[in-house]
Amino acid sequence: MDYSNERIAAVAKTLKERLEGLADKAEILKAVELRALYSEIPTLPAAERASFGKGINMLKAELEQLVAQHQEQAEALPPIDVTAPFDGNVPADKHPGLLNAMNGSKHPLMTELDSVLDIFYRMGFTAVESRQLDDDYHMFGALNFPEGHPARDDYDTFMTEETDANGKQLIAPAHTSTMQNRVLQALKPQLEQGKPIAAVIPGRVFRNEDLDARHEHTFYQLEGVYVDKGVHAGHLMATLKTFLQEYYQKELEIKTQPFYFPFTEPSFEFALSCPFCEKKGCNICGYSGWIELLGCGMIHPNVLTMAGIDPEVYTGFAWGGGIERLVMMKYDIEDVRHFESGKLDFLRQFNA
Ligand SMILES: [Zn+2]
């Protein structure tokens, strides 16, 4: 391209030479020389401004075109020959070309977890992340499972060969309740300021299960704890019902039946009316009209005491439930194993 203005022609030559050496060709469009030309326009005699401006625009358009050409060539590079080892001594311009990676996307469980947490934030809860390796005390002791307690056998856990300071093997947590003692202790000052403890704890948990469409060795749970003066089971039910109605965006009924957990007293199994069939019965609820969703109860006085909270003054509730379960029902997903499978066909359905 010919530039009638000498300065523009000189800059064009410099920039085109520089372009060859740039790894990121688009950088050329930010060159100081180009900006300097633009800033010259107001200093020129009025009669020259239009043609000078037009010349710079031509130069910019030419550079943009060159950048685009380079990008097209880069995309058309052949795949890497993996049988030819990469040699660090080869000059940079002779290196094999890398194909563009496909953009990643957010895992559907994480997208849903964000929306779950958003509902709890709006209800005044704060979130604390769980950990993926914990000790025997937080898995059992702090939750009122003393040594030798038979309920310890209900949790078929994975353990490390290494041991902690007490000689106990470390545990891949089987539930997010391992965080209860820490969260209660950390947030206890709020009680002293007259504010409740209100926290949700999302986390990855692990169980040594036989795998099938409803059981996976690795899944996510959401734990919740709420402690204040005068808290009772009615608050627990109202909290969970409010959350579920917001999550599924419909009116739901709930029911509970007595259950046993060492760390809550009383303990309940919590079920909600099937959001799909309105209790008429469908394959999602196994034609019962109800879906058992999670375990919950009033925090056992021993658990409060171990966190330094006086159970004579304060009471609280806790719950823990699988996040996959919520999401499977929302999107009618038939097999829990899809989540950890890494199958792109599954994941792409959530990133249309
Ligand atoms: Zn149903």
- The helical percent reads 25-40%
Rounded average pLDDT? 89
Strand order of the largest sheet: 1-4-5-9-8-7-6
Shape type: elongated
**Helical stretch count?**
11
Which consecutive residue ranges, at least 5 long each, have pLDDT under 50?
A: none
Description:
- Helices cover 36% and strands 20% of the residues.
- The chain has 352 residues and is α+β, with helices and mostly antiparallel strands.
- Helix 1 packs parallel to helix 3 (46-75).
- It starts with 5 loop residues before the first helix and ends with a helix.
- The model has no long low-confidence stretch (mean pLDDT 89).
- Bound molecules: zinc ion.
- Zinc ion (ZN) is lined by residues 274, 276-277, 281-282, 284-285, 289.
- Zinc ion (ZN) binds next to loops.
Summarize the SSE layout with pairings:
Layout: H1 6-21, H2 32-40, H3 46-75, H4 108-122, E1 126-127, H5 136-139, E2 158-163, E3 169-172, H6 180-192, E4 197-206, E5 218-228, H7 233-248, E6 254-261, E7 264-273, E8 290-299, H8 301-306, E9 315-322, H9 323-331, H10 338-341, H11 344-348
Parallel strand pairs: 1-4
Antiparallel strand pairs: 2-3, 4-5, 5-9, 6-7, 7-8, 8-9
Helix pairs in contact: 1-3
The protein binds zinc ion.
